[in-house]
Specification:
There is one protein chain. With 250 residues, this protein is of the alpha/beta class. It has a single domain (8-243), classed as 3-Layer(aba) Sandwich (Rossmann fold). The chain has eight helices and seven strands. The N and C termini lie far apart (39 Å).
């Protein structure tokens, strides 16, 4: 029996990348996992199949985030499959690499809608489903605290806002024994970073040089930390910002 046996988890953006890594890990730990996806139904089905192949249980729910009514639509889908929730991982997110001189309002609004507004309203509309003693884990970014990188400004601002949300929400949900934390990855090898890592020959080496450990992270490195926070061992950790950058901020 896994340490999360009997628990239900929802991981947004679990069709690919870090979210998939988290979903698979929570599934291996015994949780029943809601694998949320946006556009890639096939990839979400593959995540579900991988969890089931490892002996776990999972189901896929597809809802586009960053559009009006997204959170209500997500919970309506979730309710068709499950009755209550123990672990919510707000992972779905998008990047933005245009500096202030170039970014237009549409891109700014979109990155805030997906990265900040969606998690906020997912919690607002889902809090009653979250059982006492549960977990909310928001996937932030080392870019919220690293030295300024102007081309990532709008994206970093979304993660800064998400971090304030984690901190303040921990006070709101604490009376119910629900912990809320931000987990901040450094550069992780996913579709999101493919251009950065593989768009030029020295991309991966340059990315690795950011980290004290001299490497590029994998989704499993983030998933292991999320799994700890989701477990009984994480019960007294709340309102915190967990650095999973391999020492990229040192
Ligand atoms: N990779 C990194 O180096 C890194 C570093 C720090 C923080 N992060 C954060 O970690 C999280 C995951 O990043 P990743 O690298 O794993 O990204 P990814 O490989 O691009 O995957 C993104 C996931 O989010 C979903 N998603 C994106 N926009 C969506 C939308 N509008 N509606 C619904 N679902 C949506 C995608 O679903 P579909 O494909 O089904 O549409 C996909 O499952 C993000 O919050 C990101 O900011 C990543």
């Amino acid at each position: 029996m896994g340490v999360l046996a009997g628990r239900t988890a929802l991981v947004t953006g679990a069709s690919r990348g870090i979210g998939r890594g988290i979903a698979e890990r929570l599934g291996r730990d015994g949780a029943r996992v809601a694998v949320h996806y946006g556009r890639n139904e096939q990839a979400a089905k593959e995540t579900v199949a991988a969890i089931e192949a490892a002996g776990g249980t999972a189901f896929a729910i597809g809802v586009e985030l960053g559009v009006p009514g997204d959170a209500q639509a997500l919970w309506a889908e979730f309710d068709r499959h499950a009755d209550g929730l123990d672990i919510l991982v707000n992972n779905a997110g998008i990047g933005s690499t245009r500096p202030i001189e170039e970014i237009e309002e549409q891109e700014y609004d979109r990155v805030f809608a997906v990265n900040v507004k969606a998690p906020f309203f997912i919690v607002k509309h889902g809090a009653e489903r979250l059982r006492d003693g549960g977990r909310v884990i928001n996937i932030s970014s080392g870019l919220a605290r690293t030295a300024a990188m102007p081309q990532n400004m709008a994206y970093a601002m979304t993660k800064g806002a998400l971090d304030v949300f984690s901190r303040d929400l921990s006070k709101v949900l604490g009376s119910r024994g629900i912990t809320v934390n931000s987990v901040a990855p450094g550069i992780i090898d996913t579709d999101n970073t493919a251009e950065l890592l593989y768009g030029r020959p020295d991309g991966r080496a340059a990315a690795a040089a950011f980290s004290a450990l001299g490497g590029v992270g994998e989704p499993a490195e983030v998933a292991d930390v999320v799994a700890f926070l989701a477990s009984e061992g994480g019960r007294w950790v709340t309102g915190s910002w967990v650095d999973v950058t391999g020492g990229s901020l040192t």
